[in-house]
UniProtKB/TrEMBL annotation:
GO terms for molecular function: ATP binding. InterPro entries: Anti-sigma-factor_SerPK, HATPase_C_sf. The lineage of its organism: Bacteria, Bacillati, Actinomycetota, Actinomycetes, Kitasatosporales. This is ATP-binding protein. SUPFAM superfamilies: ATPase domain of HSP90 chaperone/DNA topoisomerase II/histidine kinase. It comes from Kitasatospora xanthocidica. PANTHER family: ANTI-SIGMA-F FACTOR RSBW, ANTI-SIGMA-F FACTOR RSBW-RELATED. The keyword ATP-binding applies. CDD domains: HATPase_RsbW-like.
Length: 180
């Protein structure tokens, strides 16, 4: 998905991921974990990173789905029309967005990626105090994902996570008496 750089994009991406993985008959606990991971990665991108340059319009309408793939395009100019609130103070950011990708591989692993324009620091798990209001996102990703990391390219940074769909489901339902 190409989404506007802003908090309203998180809900759009979450709903699309949940629908897509459900259509692919991924177990619900895995979908929940994937949605949480994507939420954390995309929220961090929108909060801390710069947007990518202007994203091209991907079709005839504001939401152009590319058939046969997991991609949905939302042009960067769609932010105001979708009701996202932009800060009133300061100069407006140049139009831009964030790229969100996911894939269900044949081996049952779901990979999730969020690509943005980078930030002043690299994404790292924090160690917040018990009373801190934030700072736990990448620690959550680290606990849920089998692996995660950061890839750099000129003008962009991609944070990715891998989630074992089959193994996670088996581990959760196998030893958890509450799931019976």
């Amino acid at each position: 998905m190409a989404v506007p750089h802003g908090p309203a994009s998180v809900g759009v991406a979450r709903r699309r991921l949940r629908r897509d993985l459900g259509d692919r008959q991924v177990p619900e606990p895995v979908i929940d974990d994937a949605v949480l991971i994507l939420s954390e990665l995309l929220s961090n991108a929108c909060r801390y990173a710069r947007p990518l340059g202007p994203l091209p319009a991907l079709g005839r309408s504001a939401r152009a789905e590319v058939l046969g793939q997991v991609l949905v395009g939302v042009p960067s100019g769609a932010t105001a029309a979708q009701g996202a609130r932009e800060p009133a103070e300061g100069p407006a950011e140049p139009a831009g967005g964030v790229l969100v990708r996911w894939q269900l591989h044949a081996d049952g692993v779901v990979t999730l990626e969020v690509t943005d324009g980078g930030a002043a620091t690299r994404p790292l798990p924090a160690s917040p105090s018990l009373t801190s209001r934030g700072g736990r996102g990448l620690s959550i990703v680290d606990q849920l994902a089998s692996d995660w990391g950061v890839r750099d390219a000129p003008g962009e940074v991609t944070v990715w996570a891998a989630l074992p769909a089959r193994a996670r489901h088996a581990r959760r339902t196998g030893g958890d008496a509450r799931s019976a």
